Amino acid sequence: MRQDNTTQRVAVDIGGTFVDAITFDRETGDISLEKAATTPGQPSDGVLDSVERVDADLESTEAFVHGTTLGLNAVLERDGARIGIITNEGFSDVHEIGRTNLERDSMYDINYQKPESMVPRRRRLGVPGRLNADGAVVEELDETAVHEAADELVEEHQVEAIAICFLHSYQNGQHEQAAADIVRDAHPEISVSVSSDITGEYREYERTSTAVLDSYIKPIFENYVDTLDDSLVGAGFDGSFFVTRSGGGTLTAESAKTAPVHTILSGPAGGLIGAAHVGDATDRDNLITVDMGGTSLDAAVVEDGSPVVKYDSSLEHQPMLIPVYDIRTIGAGGGSIAWLDGDLLKVGPESAGADPGPICYDNGGTEPTVTDAALALGFLDPADFLGGEMDTAADDAIDGIEEVLADPLDTSVSDASRGVFDVALANTVGAIREITVEKGLDPRDFSMVAYGGAGPMFVPLLARELGVKEVLVPQAPSVFSAWGMLMADVVYDFSQTMIAVLDDVELETLDASFDELEAEGRETLTAEGVAESDQRLERAVEMRYFGQEHTVEVDADGVADLDELAERFEAQHETRYGHTMDDPVQVVHLRVRAVGENDKPTLDRQVPRDGDALEPTGSREAYCFAAGEFTEFDVYERATLAPGDELAGPAVVTEPTTSLVFHADQHATVDEYGHIVITTGGEQ
């Protein structure tokens, strides 16, 4: 059993290029952090290396919190398991038919080719058995047919996982569960994903797609978690192992193995959790978060203090009926490759990753990246990369830019490098507009939070482009997502479809349904070892006007009557869409979020400067986007900054794992917590 004197928590965030580790001692408040290279061939090795580098005492660790992009990468790279589907007879093509609609960016593409299905038709099998829309049995499940279908998929098609999704199982999961038992008994080596274990909502195509994505990553995820768990236990760890959820919070590793699709965006979720906490501490309710790492850039919105959650997201054209943070991910990380499409300069989505990495890593890379361009523009010091721990090949990087980009474009290395940043900026502005302007939000009303290894270097430029009033760079921004994971509570979501016009619903009926979901939530948290005093339950209702397709989530806590619920819906609808309607209001889904609260690090106020005024530690020539030319940038070390310090641009602030770069029309101040706040123009 775990020792009584365990007070340490460890969080590890694994990305495409680096693994970030951070430790927190609940008693002393001490925090340590380190970075290690990602090991694509065996991801757990990079995690263990980061734990060793941060000098974590696993024997005295009460909780290990992990965020991973393993499932996400498997889907993006189409490198998941070989899977099959068992569904109702006559409905085996639901997954391929889908909604017969096109993605918006392909709507007018005459050369559009529908993406190949993850599950070919020969591996989609239907069996007799049927429920009606109320969940009542119309035709008993043919268990013999299920057994035969499982045998065919495993023995003839060599599948590694099977997704099971039957019509109307959101109302009654008994046929799905019976089928899953048959498959597991006949083929215990096969992973099984059951739609009713993942979501309690209607829409058979979306349910099937969610189960398919889950089964696609499940064998890989199970093997990874088991391997990592065994290694941690072998190193003396006897605490709780958690994985960050895509929609916020954490769940135990064992629960994550049951439905790993809930962790598919677990890496980026940590940063959003941390940003919301920083926003709360600094009275910033509305934030745009930008996490720029080595492989990708993740952008999201925190509105009224809470990260925006979606329940009908998609990944690689595959819909998911699970709660996920509304994160836009683009291939614009430090390792994103710059290339030419004819005479057109492009950046990403392909990344050099950790192996071989950018040219400047001197690890065999030959294609110029954003990081190489940053070196050429003077934003990074080749002699002080990762605090001097990593040797760089700056001359090779410049030669690579010249050969691959500058010479073919008949321009200079500096102009080509500036062009790399311009293209990356344009790509990112588009992603930000999707989650703000296209949803009726003005980016200028938000503060921007910059983190990730490349975020502080890039985001001040992004803020200039969007007219954002300020950029906040938190402490230790390069490992901020891992820090955010320390702030995560244990969270489970429960939902139930209940389609009815609000006038036809009784408050008692609504409360009774919520009570059932809450009982399930309390039971789950208790089974996870969460004390009753640390449990919190949150109610919400998905609502819409009759005839609408999309819904609005409405807070249902403390509702005295249905009129109050309707008023909350109309207020939320007007905020989102700018109007209300006279049509009847309809209830669609009931939701309960069960939260088990954890001890968290606090943001401590720092001591202001006492003595001499702040002075730069040096200067270097770099490209200033405000001046449009190379000029002298003052250089500061972040460790020397104190609350109240003011820094005029252009300047670079260095720390061991990242560099903050801001320009001549920008100004920086250090707040009471040690965060650096960048403003542009007259917003000083």
From TrEMBL:
InterPro entries: ACX-like_C, Hydant_A_N, Hydantoinase_A, Oxoprolinase-like. Coiled coil: none annotated. Signal peptide: none annotated. It holds the Pfam family Hydantoinase_A. Residues 9-185 form the Hydantoinase/oxoprolinase N-terminal domain. Residues 508-673 form the Acetophenone carboxylase-like C-terminal domain. Residues 207-492 form the Hydantoinase A/oxoprolinase domain. Transmembrane segments: none annotated. PANTHER family: 5-OXOPROLINASE RELATED (PTHR11365), HYPOTHETICAL 5-OXOPROLINASE (EUROFUNG)-RELATED (PTHR11365:SF23). This is Hydantoinase/oxoprolinase family protein. It comes from Haloarchaeobius litoreus. The lineage of its organism: Archaea, Methanobacteriati, Methanobacteriota, Stenosarchaea group, Halobacteria.
